[in-house]
Amino acid sequence: GSSAAGGSSAAGGAEAAAAAPAEPKRTSAFRGVSRRYGNGRWKARIKQHGTDVVIGDFDDEEEAARAYDARARQIHGDNAILNFPNSS
User: Fold this and answer.
1) Which of 64, 36, 65, 32 is closest to 48 using CA atoms?
2) Which residues contact 28 (CB under 8 A, 6 or more apart)?
3) Which long-range contacts (CB under 8 A, 24 or more apart) does 12-21 make?
4) pTM, whole model, 2 decimals?
5) How far is Cα 71 from Cα 80, in angstroms, rounded to an integer?
6) Could you count the other beta carbons within 10 Å of the beta carbon of residue 79?
7) Residue 20: phi, psi to the nearest 5?
């Protein structure tokens, strides 16, 4: 029920933007993962000593997230914040 939106110009603008042809999503639900603009592949990266370290490009978003987890474990050990904390 979005009938409460009314006829304001702001709501109309948002609806128009949403109706535009959808670009592949650039953001990911996973930590350390984003979509590359040029080739549409998933990039995994992590900060190490204040520097962005690219782990690699992956065809699959979850594969990129698991690569992030592996590197996070190497860097931070048991203190790593992981995408899949219950997997080994």
Assistant:
1) 32
2) 34, 35, 42, 61, 64, 65
3) none
4) 0.69
5) 9
6) 8
7) -65, 155
